[in-house]
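User: Is it possible to get a 3D structure for a protein together with its bound compound? The compound here is D-allose. I've pasted both below.
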Amino acid sequence: MTESAPRLADLPGEARAALDAQTIELPSWAFGNSGTRFKVFGTPGTPRDPFEKIADAAQVHAHTGIAPRVSLHIPWDLVDDFDALAAHASEHGVRIGAINSNVFQDDDYRLGSLCNPSAGVRRKAIDHHLRCIEVMQRTGSRDLKIWLADGLNYPGQDDLRARQDRLAEGLAEIYAGLGAEQRLILEYKFFEPAFYATDIPDWGTSLLHCLALGERAKVVLDTGHHAPGTNIEFIVMQLVRAGRLGAFDFNSRFYADDDLMAGAADPFQLFRIMHEIVRVGALDPASGINFMLDECHNIEDKIPGQIRSVLNVQEATAKALLVDREALTKAQAAGDVLAANGVLMDAYNTDVRALLDEWRTDRGLPADPMRTFAESGYLARIAADRVGGTPAGWGA
Ligand code: AOS
Ligand code: ZN
Ligand code: ZN
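Assistant: Yes, that's possible. Here is the predicted structure of the complex:
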């Protein structure tokens, strides 16, 4: 079936409202230099501190209108005055989102953090999280996001079960330190940096810990953290169904945790994920799902890399909103396999770019954010202005 591209007016009111409600949170580390273990290619004008990272993130919001929050990483984004950082964000039209804890960089964490066999190291890791909660109080952040690099390289290296018990104990203490409105969101990853066993390798393990902690503990699904071929939309559906999907870390993967731009490697997968979200109205902030990016831009410019990612997520969302739900339900009930699949494919194959250009111009935003940003001269300006100091890297 070929039809001309839909316009904004063709979108049912409910779908339009869902599109209006969508927000995507940007990671501060996407604006710093990053790379593989082979080489980090620096970019002129790279932010030298968290203030400059926020200013760059604000450009993404100014051009797309749907990226009003920035996640921080502690200690990478440690500043003396978090009140000033929050005020700086608001002056730039954005605010601070999730606080990511980093307990994977110190030598002390060679054998893990919350799962470490040493009580002293576990204490240090717990205290770091409690300090992150203090940062959250200052910045008005709701979510404490935990990803642990904990795991084992060799069978027998440590006791698998004891590590889970230590983890449960540490998480419980951290959870107890949260304010009444704050949440703990727990990420999983099937391997890397540990190769034999990871302490939180999958959504089941994350969910079990969250269930033990309480209502305000939810799972973070990073789209790059699964084995090849994993049906990620199934996991999304199951976690949403259980009321425990706390957040996404969107990115693209070809092989492992590639952290490439969301929707670049497999836009169809992103569409299938967003279909599971929109079919239950979970774009609504009341659903409690924080739609975040977790990406690094190693060879491309960072700000337009983030703009492209945000637009890719929005396009996948608009396509998911175009699924003819009634026709789909009818075909499914009739057991008409091909018709049901056809309904999904029709939506996926629809070009929504003009519709979204219109959505932006309606709100006084540029129709073509990539072009407008490129023409703005911002990159040349920061390259000229940000001289001296050390450009922030992935990790600093
Ligand atoms: C690590 O692989 C995870 O995706 C985390 O979300 C991590 O916090 C992020 O990559 C930045 O360190
Ligand atoms: Zn992640
Ligand atoms: Zn990752």
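The chain has 14 helices and ten strands. Strands lie at 25-27, 69-74, 95-101, 143-146, 151-152, 183-187, 197-198, 217-222, 245-250, 290-293.
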